[in-house]
Amino acid sequence: MKKTTLITTTSLCMLIGSQAVSAQNITIIPQLAVQYKNLDFDQKIKFGFKPSDGSGTRERLNEDYTGGFEAQIPTLSASLTGYYSGMFVTLKYDSNVTETQTDSTVGFTNGPTDVDRSDISLTVGYNIVDNLNIFGGYMRGQTELTPEPGYVDDIEGSQQFYLGCVFSDDSSIPCTPPVFSNLAKDHEILGLEPYKQEYEENGWFVGASYGVALGSGNLSFSIAYALMQGEYRDNYLQGVVEADSVFKGDSKGLSLGVTWREQLSDTTGYFIDLRRQEYDMDADDEKGLLDNEFGVPLFEKTETEERMTTLTAGLHWYF
């Protein structure tokens, strides 16, 4: 599968900016902020190939399926930076404060879906000249989708890949058309944990930022690039049969940001940050689930693209 990966590049280097901090003492800078994130998520699922008919032409089991969603995610962000003699280290954590529900057409979600997003990163940077900083670090991000249980009767538009209900001797479970359960409903019927999809990326990023003093504040611009490992997994029928999915692959991303910072006192300041992040991940099927008719892997890979625009406002303190 190819999967979109969401990466978070930290704005630690902009904490220092043009504020006057001693080059000979360690300065501790905690930061607390709220964020408004708009996440635009697109996914393409590629089916496997039918066995060769000897002609050299390979035909897929089915056409590629594309789906997605858009969600507005309220988020709380906290970080802690240590600064000494031009060098800084920052630990940062972002997480949504409440679940955000949206209508999703991502494969196997098929309707109202709760979206959760969290990121953690460790960044090391250095102020090489005046307001120019370089930085690099390691991050891990995770997007979790939890669709609502339900029945669907529009297979083409609502239940793209599921050809029937969970097989069971329980006559109360509908197993024939025109009634089909989505994967979340299967879990509810069987008394399993809620059906979830998890998209995770982790790896390294590098970047730079430059600040310009304007009046009593500082305007900074930043760019960062990330190369990571990505993974998609779900928990379908875990504990009942071997039906859950795992896809792994490479992920890459680009982040562009602009930040305004201004001091409120000798030890306190505020900032406003606008950031655009675009991430792509290619992930291949690790489980090799078989198609009953042809005996070949049902899904080959997934391709995901995530575009995230984030507006952040918060306070930072110097100690």
From TrEMBL:
The keyword Signal applies. Residues 1-23 form the signal peptide. Keywords: Signal. It comes from the Bacteria. This is Uncharacterized protein. The lineage of its organism: Bacteria, Pseudomonadati, Pseudomonadota, Gammaproteobacteria, Oceanospirillales.
